[in-house]
Amino acid sequence: MNDATIDQSLSDLVIERVGFGIFVLDRDMNVLMWNRFMQDHSGQPAETVVGKSIFASFPELPRVWLSRKVESVFQLGSFAFSSWEQRPYLFKFDHDRPITGGVDYMQQDCTFMPLTRGREVVAVCVTISDVTHVSVMQREREDALEKLQEYANLDGLTGIANRRFFEGRLRDEFLRWQRYGGEMSVLLFDLDHFKDINDRFGHAVGDTVLRVMAQRVSDAVRIQDTFGRFGGEEFALLLPCTPLADAMLVAEKIRMTIGDTPVEAEGVRVPVTASVGGAAARPGLPSYEVLINEADAALYSAKRQGRNRSVALADA
């Protein structure tokens, strides 16, 4: 056996044993070579695939996309690549990841390489790399980051928006209002005599009261509204596209939602009421901070007037 024969045998062995798919196509999309990886994962041996159109053996392949990809390599004579992020897979091969990985088929990177004789491209070699593990890890990382971002926007006790997220939404909505006009209102409210609840029943009961109250209000507001905890027993509600008169109707609804039914916690029934202050954006308002301050002034007016009531800025 001469050196050339040995080299060819080694080359053939490597192609058969490598851990990725290799197949070769001519310009008519006929298969010229099909390695062991492709055979094992497709279930079709080389003798049933080679010499036929790739689409005859695998009619489910994206015919237009794959034909254009191969033709571009023939025309340009340069490499082409397709990532799993652009197209998750070319072949519907099974993967060895747990079902909980969230992918149906093996995720694949594909490389298209011109095979030349002189300056002429005579065939295109396509490689299929199994990147399922990489794709699953990236998806898990993205999901984790998304959850972290979500948690960063939520109040730890009540599960509603925290103050940082609320003010960000208010700032964005205020800028939209400044640019396009319309209506926008803000309500601030807190629970009356909440310190007495903590002192009388304990902080565990107080925390339950806050959680129950937050859930009640969340169930009562619109999906386009933003409901957040400002701190302690103080809460805020952003009402886009809402004039002050309508906002005060919402304020009354919230006040009754909170106060109509005592909160049951730790074996006791705790009566709860709330005071609400409202303000609306108007021409000349310099910033969203001023809007918050005006709603806050209305809230304190409600408290001065005896609590358990709603007060608008105009009435403060």
Automatic annotation (TrEMBL):
Q: Which GO terms describe its molecular function?
A: diguanylate cyclase activity
For this protein, the parts annotated as crossing the membrane are: none
Its GO CC terms are: plasma membrane
The record, for InterPro entries, names: Diguanylate_Cyclase, GGDEF_dom, Nucleotide_cyclase, PAS, PAS-like_dom_sf, PAS_fold, Rev_trsase/Diguanyl_cyclase
Q: Name one Pfam family in it.
A: PAS
EC number(s) for this protein? 2.7.7.65
| PAS domain sequence ranges | 7-58
| CDD domains listed in its UniProt record | GGDEF (cd01949), PAS (cd00130)
> What biological process terms from GO does the record include?
cell adhesion involved in single-species biofilm formation; negative regulation of bacterial-type flagellum-dependent cell motility; regulation of DNA-templated transcription
Q: What Gene3D superfamilies does this protein map onto?
A: 3.30.70.270, PAS domain
Q: Which reaction does it catalyse?
A: 2 GTP = 3',3'-c-di-GMP + 2 diphosphate
Which residue range or ranges hold the GGDEF domain? 182-315
PANTHER family found in the cross-reference section = DIGUANYLATE CYCLASE DGCM-RELATED, REGULATORY COMPONENTS OF SENSORY TRANSDUCTION SYSTEM
In Swiss-Prot or TrEMBL terms, this protein is called diguanylate cyclase
User: Which organism is this protein's natural source?
Assistant: Trinickia dinghuensis
